[in-house]
Amino acid sequence: QVQLVESGGGSVHSGGSLRLSCAASGVTYYMYYMGWFRQAPGEEREAIAIIDSGGSTRYGDSVKGRFTISQDNTKNTLYLQMNSLKPEDTAMYYCAAKAPGCNPIMSSGNCYLSSAVFRYWGQGTQVTVSS
Question: 54-68: per-residue pLDDT in tens?
Answer without folding.
Answer: 999 999 999 999 999
